[in-house]
Design a protein that fits this description.
The protein is an alpha+beta fold and 162 residues long. It contains six helices and three strands. Helix 2 runs antiparallel to helix 3. The chain starts with a helix and ends in a 22-residue tail after the last strand.
Length: 162
């Protein structure tokens, strides 16, 4: 278990499906370059053989308590629509046929923050036309991290007496 946790950490914390595919190469590299650190003594040939034979589901299941303690999920989303917005925009599911004509966009935001919304990170807004396949993506800093907009002289917008 400890060796699996260290291999998972050193390989960039991938999912079990990915780690199972690259396990042989990663173990060979980590042992050869002596990168296992404090678990080197526990990485016996029997343990390494067991790691190489593990299924992706087992790789995900074994270190789950360790992963959960490292990354407590406070919420599953960084966006929370208001009740007005939720009721005014029709939501489609994967079973809906979708639009037949171009010009209807699916929008989504992604927070590039890891497991916490704390600290500095970026947001990406993606707009996709599913009919044409056209996609536009824009990445921005959160509003708290953006510099304030310059003030605008709005005197030209006020009506002037004749």
């Amino acid at each position: 278990m400890v060796v699996l946790q260290e291999v998972w950490r050193l390989t960039g914390q991938p999912c079990g499906k990915y780690l199972a595919v690259v396990m042989d190469d990663q173990l060979e590299r980590l042992v050869r370059l002596r990168e296992l650190g404090k678990v080197t003594s526990q990485a016996t040939p029997a343990v390494l053989a067991e790691l190489k034979s593990m299924s992706p589901a087992t790789i995900d299941r074994y270190p789950k308590p360790h992963k959960d303690s490292m990354y407590p999920l406070e919420s599953l989303s960084g966006t929370h629509p208001s009740h007005i917005l939720r009721s005014s925009i029709p939501v489609s599911s994967c079973f809906d046929p979708g639009p037949d004509t171009p010009g209807v966009f699916e929008l989504d935001t992604v927070a590039h923050c890891g497991f916490s919304l704390k600290g500095e990170f970026l947001w990406t807004l993606s707009a996709t036309d599913p009919v044409v396949g056209w996609t536009l993506m824009r990445t921005v800093k959160p509003s708290a991290q953006r510099p304030p907009l310059p003030s605008v002289n709005a005197s030209f917008m006020t009506p002037q007496p004749p």
